[in-house]
Each structure stands twice: as C-alpha cells, then as structure tokens.
Amino acid sequence: MALFFDQKWFTDRLNALGKTPNGLAEAMGIPLIDLAAVWKDQRELSVEEVRAMAEFLDAPVQDVASHAGISTPIPVDEGAGGNPDTEQPNAVLARLDRMDARLERLERMMGDVHALLMEERLARLDEAGLGIASGKDTETQ
C-alpha cells in the first residue's frame, strides 16, 4: 500500500486507457479542482469515489485504494460479506456529507465574489467622485 497518493500509477493508468483527468473527475462526480487536491495528496477519497475511480480506470478497487494512499478506505464487495442494509444508508450519508462540504465551499466562494463586486462598485464610485472616500454627499446630487 502506498503511503501517499501514487500520481505516477494513476497517470500511467489514464494514459494507458487514453482517458483524461477531466473524464475521471466527471466519473467520480467531483470538480477537477478536487481531483487535483487528491493528486497532491491534499484530499481524502470516499469509498464511493474509490469505486468510481476503479470503474473508470478498469482496475480492481483494491489496486486503486492501494495506490491512493494509506488512509484510503477499501470498498467492501457486497457479495463477499458486505452488509447491504448498512452500506446503502452509509453511502447516502457519505454523499450527503460531500454535498454539504461542496455547498459550504460554494457559499464561501459566493461571499468572496460578493466582496469583490462591492469593492469594484466602491472603486467606481470613488473614481466618479461619488464614493464615501470623496467626502461628497450622494443624496444631494
């Protein structure tokens, strides 16, 4: 098992199949920037993501998990002793956790975009001599 994410193994696998990181990210249901974080060993993979990678890369899930780093969960094959009664709810909960994390990132990004737009608006008002920094009363103009 690899201690860290084995970029070379995954890149070689993609190249051997003529596939791209964009396609892999899409198959995993994550943005490309999240896949880049996985590649840099800055983001953990979920069981569902390991399964999606294995399917996309036409490789056994054990191989994918082994090359993805020491903390990567290895999916349990339901036919080999997995409990479908607990796996399905766990998969739903894991997906909800990922969706919640994505929503939080989107909300932070929206706040950043709003702040940038407000800065731009204030700068334009200042340039026109109508902003707070100009000292002019905008209500009387």
Structure description:
There is one protein chain. With 141 residues, the protein is mostly helical. Helices cover 62% and strands 0% of the residues. It contains six helices and no strands. Helix 2 (21-28) packs across helix 4 (47-56) and helix 4 (47-56) crosses helix 5. It is elongated. The model has no long low-confidence stretch (mean pLDDT 81).
Rg from C-alpha positions?
23 Å
General shape: elongated
Order of helices and strands: HHHHHH
Distance between the termini: 70 Å
User: How large a portion of the residues is in β-strands, by DSSP E?
Assistant: under 5%
Q: Can I get a quick summary?
A:
By secondary structure, this protein is mainly α. The protein has helices spanning 7-17, 21-28, 32-39, 47-56, 61-67, 84-127.
Give the secondary structure arrangement, pairings included.
Blueprint (H helix, E strand, L loop, with lengths): L6 H11 L3 H8 L3 H8 L7 H10 L4 H7 L16 H44 L14
Helix pairs in contact: 2-4, 4-5
Features:
single chain, 141 residues, mainly alpha, 6 helices, 0% strand, elongated
